[in-house]
Amino acid sequence: STEIDKIRSGPVPFQDGYDPNIHSRSEYAPLDAVEQYVNQIPLASQSIYQLEVRNDDEIKTLSRTFAKEVLDSIIEESKRFASSQD
């Protein structure tokens, strides 16, 4: 079951002075990418879903109940997909 505390929106604010670390290719393991991927052991998983509206009228009708129904449906489909992969 899904619980929604708040629905809020907004762009990610600009980060003045943002200085990301840039890594060169030599800093990564030289294994073949597929081999490295196949040997990964996931510890957990995370899914992020973004609901979008087509116009301002849809925003007025969007409710927690409707969003919860949509997310519950997505979760059920995800469970079915995951169980079919076993």
User: In terms of structural class, how would the helical and strand content be classed?
Assistant: mainly alpha
User: What's the alpha carbon Rg, rounded to whole Å?
Assistant: 20 Å
In sequence order, what are the helices and strands, one letter per element?
Answer: HHH
Strands, count? 0
Into which percentage range does the β-strand content fall? under 5%
For the biggest sheet, the summary is: none
Average pLDDT number: 81
First and last CA, distance: 23 Å
Range of helix content: 25-40%
List the uncertain runs: none
Architecture overview:
- The protein is an all-alpha fold and 86 residues long.
- It has 3 helices and no strands.
- The longest helix is centred in the C-terminal third of the chain and has 21 residues, at 64-84.
- The two termini are 23 Å apart.
